[in-house]
Amino acid sequence: MKQRIIDALILMAGSGSRLRPSGHTLPKPLIKIRGRPVFSYTIDALERAGIQTVHIVTGWNSDALLEGLKPLIGSKMKLHAIHNPDWEKQNGISVLAAAPHLDSPFLLTMGDHLFDPAIVDLAIRNADSNSLNLAVDRKLDAVFDLADAMKVKTKGDLIVAIGKQLEDYNAIDTGLFVCSPEIFKYLEEAKNDGDCSLADGVRAMAADEKVRAIDIGDAWWQDIDTPQMLAQAEKILGNGRAARGTTLP
Q1: Angular region, 163: left φ>0, alpha ψ -120 to 50, beta rest
Q2: Distance (Å, whole) CA 75 – CA 40
Q3: Are 82 and 56 a contacting pair, CB within 8 Å?
Q4: Handedness of CA 209, 42, 231, 67 (dihedral sign)
Q5: Each residue's pLDDT tens digit in the chain (249 positions)?
Q6: Which of 7, 64, 198, 220 could pair with 242 as two cysteines, CB 3.0-4.6 Å apart?
Q7: Taking phi first (over 0 means left), then psi (-120 to 50 degrees means alpha), and beta for anything else, what does residue 231 get?
Q8: Ordered DSSP codes for the chain
């Protein structure tokens, strides 16, 4: 019987250094687009998908972040903050900070990504709870700032390679995963001098044929890591339509 996904893990420990020079001093999840904080869009999608507990990994400016996030959580969900004292390390360390709190399959995403809510539903519905499942975008010509994107090579429904510098690829990592707790073991093994990225863990699991790709089809997503990406998200959301036939809240 398929396990129900009721936990989500959101990484938001970074400092948003690529946005701050443009005048954005708030933590990225609190930056407003169309008058709403980025985090509120995420919460809408998670609530719709039946998530009950949202675990957030904090680091830089964690007090201000939490103060801004708490009012955005409705009565149907619980917010659980996990502080990563090593937040200046790569994002794999932030994932590992949550290991003591997650012992069943969970949704994993980033605090600076926006999603069509349909992607969350699609990922949960199609996930294999014994694998690492990554929502991928095959619409390469529609990806904003392709050079900065995390590239993925798939073979059938398996992911066989991942990396920003990958030259042979046929999909893009959207930053949304459905994870087996086994990811924690692979991240621990992937550590080099006490540090690792999430991609390192994905790469290690892919070598054991344990990473599946879930195609998002026409659905829309956007990273907001730079001022240009933020402007693109504002433009798309300002139009009220993120993908053909899909209206965002």
Answers
A1: left
A2: 14
A3: yes
A4: negative
A5: 567 999 999 999 986 665 544 555 678 899 889 889 999 999 999 999 999 999 999 998 899 999 999 999 988 899 999 999 999 999 999 999 999 999 999 999 999 889 999 999 999 999 999 999 999 999 999 998 899 899 999 999 999 999 999 999 999 999 999 999 999 999 999 999 999 999 999 999 999 999 999 999 999 999 888 888 888 888 888 766 443 334 444
A6: 220
A7: alpha
A8: -PPP--EEEEEE-S--TTTGGGT--S-GGG-EETTEEHHHHHHHHHHHTT--EEEEEEBTBHHHHHHHHGGG--TT-EEEEEE-TTTTS-HHHHHHHTGGG--S-EEEEETTEEE-HHHHHHHHHH--TTSEEEEEE--GGG-TTGGGS-EEEEETTEEEEEETT-SS-SEEEEEEEEE-THHHHHHHHH-BTTB--HHHHHHHHHHTT-EEEEE-TT--EEE-SSHHHHHHHHHHHHTTEEETTEE--
Per the CB < 8 A criterion, the answer to whether 137 and 171 are in contact is: yes
Longest dimension (CA), the chain: 49
Instruction: State the virtual CA torsion across 156, 157, 160, 163 in degrees, nearest 10.
Output: 120
Instruction: Check: pTM over 0.85? Answer yes or no.
Output: yes
Instruction: Quote the distance between the C-alpha of residue 230 and its chain's center.
Output: 16
Residue 36 tokens, joined: 């709403």
Residue 5's contacts (CB-CB under 8 Å, 6 or more residues apart) are 49, 50, 51, 105, 106, 107, 124, 127, 178
Angle at alpha carbon of residue 53, lines to 249 and 159, rounded to 5°: 75
